[in-house]
Amino acid sequence: MENYALSCYSTADLSPEHFKERDISFICFHYYLDGVEYTDDLGQSMPFDVFYARMKEGADTKTSQVNAGEFMEYFRSILIQGKDILHVCLSSGLSGVVNSAETAKEALLEEFPDRKIFIVDSLGASSGYGLLMDRLADLRDEGKGLEEVYQWAEAHKLNLHHWFFSTDLTFYVKGGRISKVSGWFGTALEICPLLNMDHTGHLIPRFKIRGKKKVIREIVKKMELFAENRLDYSGKCFISHSDCYNDARKVADMIEERFPKLNGKVVINSVGTTIGSHTGPGTVALFFWGDTRKD
Q: Are 118 and 88 in contact (CB under 8 A)?
């Protein structure tokens, strides 16, 4: 069997236990809270509830992607073990970090001419990106080689659907994604935007849904509409949430009821501090395999 490492970022928003169990390596993004730098390390140095409480209290947040120098150090630590690397990046529609990974790759292949490094732009984020990594780990464990897994990732990454809704517009206003006036009216009318990831890896607002109960029903309907084999969907389903577990649980319960052939229970993770710095609390994201994303 080929000796290679599956690699990604902490922004795949899986638990530390999940990363360890599936033998997936990761490198951490960074974020700033009121000007102080922290590592996005899956809630280890700052628990997620503390992070989101700080945001609710008005703390300023900013994120910082992994630079080429950090990649050099990280990739080298794997290459010196005699392993090749398949590294999957956070969507280029959200971050330019893929460029840093490519820069490090080119430099290190001169240093390690007998090794291979493949870079994939996931065109995904959060636990949807994590669901892709989980499937790649399945393929590796089935005995598939580095190039075969790389080719599968490139061929199927747009089959991974990402749907999000938010019940708190505060950070959409703060981040400039909606105006203060729209945010005020949206909050007064209990509007919950429903968004998805398009085929270029950008997050696109699709619908304005009034009320939490209705948006929960609508996000499940999107899975009914787009999931592979529809209600006979037999793949895995992941959900991530930013400090709103009860909302995520309601979505998961509905999915487990509607999709009886689901591969195990819905896995619920926390939206990490990098993605969460932009969404704020109150976001639920749903991920599943389905039709190819085309817009």
A: no
Q: Are 281 and 269 in contact (CB under 8 A)?
A: no
Q: Which amino acid is at 64?
A: S
Q: Tell me the C-alpha distance between 288 and 219, whole Å.
A: 12
Q: What is the pTM of this model?
A: 0.94
Summarised one tens digit per residue, pLDDT across range 182-213 is 444 445 447 888 999 999 999 888 999 999 99
Report which residue type is found at 254. M
Pairing of strands 191-197, 203-210: antiparallel
pLDDT digits (tens, 9 = 90+) for 21-61: 999 999 999 999 999 999 999 999 999 999 999 999 999 99
* Opening angle at CA 6, ends 5 and 8, nearest 5: 130
Q: Which single residue is written with the structure tokens 């969907």? A: 233
- What does the block give as tokens for 258? 């509607």
